[in-house]
Amino acid sequence: MGETDKLTQSSQKTEANTAKVDHNFILSIANLVVEFKTRTDTVRVLDHVSFDISKGETLGIVGESGCGKSMTALSIMGLIPSPPGRLVSGSIKLGEKEITSLSAEQMRHIRGSEISMIFQEPMSSLNPVFTVGEQIAEAVRLHEKVSSKAAMSRAIEMLKAVDIPEPEVRAKAYPHELSGGMRQRVMIAIGLACRPRILIADEPTTALDATVQAQIFDLLGDLQRETDTAIVLITHDMGAIAELADNVAVMYAGRIVEQGPVEVILSNPQHPYTQGLIECVPHLEASPSTERKPLIEIPGVVPSLSDLGAGCAFAPRCANCFGHCLTNKPSLERGTSGHLVACHLYTEDHVNVHPTASPGTV
Questions:
Q1: Are 314 and 252 in contact (CB under 8 A)?
Q2: CA–CA separation, 307 vs 279, rounded Å?
Q3: How many CA atoms lie within 13 A of 202 on its CB side?
Q4: I want to staple 284 with a disulfide (CB 3.0 to 4.6 A). Which of 2, 49, 68, 225 is the partner?
């Protein structure tokens, strides 16, 4: 399926998504602030990040490298390296349980059993001296009181669930004996072995070819339908967001700049950064005779978090920047489409300060 097809297909998911999400939030994050201490300064890497996710829902977190996606995941998992990092303020609730106040031992019981994470690179996450079956079985034994034999049976069952052929044979293989796609499937098997309520997938198809990427995304979707697990999908790929996500949070420089139902944001993106991410998606035209539209890249690079200034972090790269953007940081508010957007183009200030611009046309 082409990237444009994925974006188009997302607009057809509204009714199904509404029926699936029950709004009894399984994970709620409110005003999360995380800072890192450097040699010369303190850098805020997450700035009042908030979102909720329901059972069976997929939340996509999208943005360029360095925008705070993976740091959000590490915060949920309680894996912020400390020092130099620390959670300054905010709330992370697993159901009704506040987990930011839990001890390291208590978080170890939650990780893997209630919240699991698939990391970007399976070769650095899998232990090279143990078979993949042993590693899945170990994850089971850490959280459930079962025998070694029962744990290995679960491991083989999970390898079969993630569509690895000859699971009894592959369970005895070492990571280096498997392809990249198979290793990523093993990581998914480990993540789901204890039937967690939430699965965080951090760039789960990095370095995989397009065919294997599609297979992994299809697998995640199938497993979610079977288990009703909530998924937090972290990616820079808007095509993956269109295919898998129910809701999306667009992050830039440690903040969420746009947030809402995926079909609404993809069909009517309001923040200039979101629009730029969508315009970067390659378009496969239906007819060879149709002139292909050139890709439009976002100028510049993500700014250093230690030098953001008082205004909008995206202002130096934004074609619609005006004076107010340079001196005032926009808050995340409901835009004209009803979803959340942090942009002065959609606030009362825009009308008063820059009345000649046209919101929603960037």
A1: yes
A2: 27
A3: 20
A4: 2
